[in-house]
């Protein structure tokens, strides 16, 4: 049986990350630093002799470009790629496009903190992490996980909150612990799964 390999990567720094804006489903591109982060992720995977059979990403440019740059660094630009809104970043609703400091000035530090870090309280017109998980996890179970369990080495390039939803399953995190988890941009998380779909080993490929 081939190895059951699943690698998750949060996209490189985007222009709106740099400007401290709530991004959500808005579609800014990577910064120059974000491009370098994505390339570096590819080089770190290549240094570990990791290669892939198929890839998944979101419907947003910053994740798609991160994936393209990683695959270019790996020399695997011809791989099949599935792009789906199910892997999009959490929708921040009325906060989208706002500077985080301006949002705090408008609604107060405590309220903005609740919207950003609670599990089940959405911002106005947007999604909570619970809402995000409700679309990410069925897609994972229906589409991504079966590929991994078939022995197809799988790479997922997505977003901080869509990947945090996956970490709840993979790392056994709950609604109390997941709000405190941060994912660095452009850092691959390498999982190897057991036959029962639970995690056999995890490695974080930091610089």
From TrEMBL:
Keyword Hydrolase (UniProt): no
Any one Gene Ontology molecular-function term assigned to this protein's record: phosphoglycerate mutase activity
Annotated metabolic or biological route of this protein: Carbohydrate degradation; glycolysis; pyruvate from D-glyceraldehyde 3-phosphate: step 3/5
Site (Transition state stabilizer): 159
Pfam families: His_Phos_1
Annotated TM spans: none
Residues noted as binding substrate in the record, renumbered to the chain: 10-17, 23-24, 62, 89-92, 100, 116-117, 160-161
EC number: 5.4.2.11
Catalytic residues (UniProt): 11 (tele-phosphohistidine intermediate), 89 (proton donor/acceptor)
BP GO annotations: gluconeogenesis; glycolytic process
Superkingdom, natural source: Bacteria
Keyword entries, A-Z: Gluconeogenesis, Glycolysis, Isomerase
Gene3D superfamilies for the chain: Phosphoglycerate mutase-like (3.40.50.1240)
Family matches, as SUPFAM superfamilies: Phosphoglycerate mutase-like
HAMAP family noted in UniProt: PGAM_GpmA
Subunit comment: Homodimer.
UniProt-listed PANTHER family: PHOSPHOGLYCERATE MUTASE
This protein's name: 2,3-bisphosphoglycerate-dependent phosphoglycerate mutase
Lineage: Bacteria, Pseudomonadati, Pseudomonadota, Alphaproteobacteria, Hyphomicrobiales
């Amino acid at each position: 049986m081939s190895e059951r390999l699943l690698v998750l990567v949060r996209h490189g720094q985007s222009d709106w990350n740099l400007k401290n804006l709530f991004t959500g489903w808005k579609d800014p591109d990577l910064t120059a630093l974000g491009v370098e982060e994505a390339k570096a992720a590819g080089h770190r995977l290549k240094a570990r002799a990791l290669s892939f059979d198929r890839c998944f990403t979101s419907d947003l440019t910053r994740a798609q470009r991160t994936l393209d740059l990683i695959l270019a660094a790996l020399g695997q630009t011809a791989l099949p790629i599935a792009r789906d809104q199910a892997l999009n970043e959490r929708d921040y609703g009325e906060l989208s496009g706002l500077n985080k400091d301006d949002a705090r000035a408008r609604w107060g530090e405590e309220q903005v903190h609740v919207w950003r870090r609670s599990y089940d309280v959405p911002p106005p017109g947007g999604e909570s992490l619970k809402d995000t998980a409700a679309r990410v996890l069925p897609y994972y179970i229906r589409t991504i996980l079966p590929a991994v369990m078939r022995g197809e080495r799988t790479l997922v390039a997505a977003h901080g909150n869509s990947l945090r939803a996956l970490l709840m399953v993979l790392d056994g995190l709950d609604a109390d612990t997941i709000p405190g988890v941060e994912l660095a941009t452009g850092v691959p998380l390498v999982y190897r799964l057991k036959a029962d779909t639970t995690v056999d080993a995890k490695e974080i490929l930091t610089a």
